[in-house]
Amino acid sequence: MAHHDENFKDDSGFLSIFLGLVVLVSMSALPATIGVIQAFGG
């Protein structure tokens, strides 16, 4: 049988929220990033 640990903390919820925020910020910053690359890249 599986051992049940009372002190185990599941951090997957925090990780998924953090990754969601990273994706949200990067998607909203994508047009500005493309503009900077086009401006300085030629």
In short, what is this structure?
The protein is mostly helical and 42 residues long. Helices cover 71% and strands 0% of the residues.
Give an account of the 3D structure.
The radius of gyration is 20 Å and the shape is rod-shaped. The model has no long low-confidence stretch (mean pLDDT 87). The protein is an all-alpha fold. Helix content is 71%, strand content 0%. The protein is built from one helix and no strands. 0% of the residues are buried.
* Count of DSSP-assigned helices: 1
Q: Give, in order, the helices and strands.
A: H
Biggest sheet details = none
Unreliable sequence segments: none
> How large is the share of residues in beta strands?
under 5%
Taking all Cα atoms into account, the compactness measure Rg is 20 Å
Q: Please, what is the average pLDDT?
A: 87
Structural class: mainly alpha
Approximate helicity band: over 70%
Question: What is the CA-CA span between the terminal residues?
Answer: 63 Å
Strand segment tally:
0
Name the overall outline.
rod-shaped
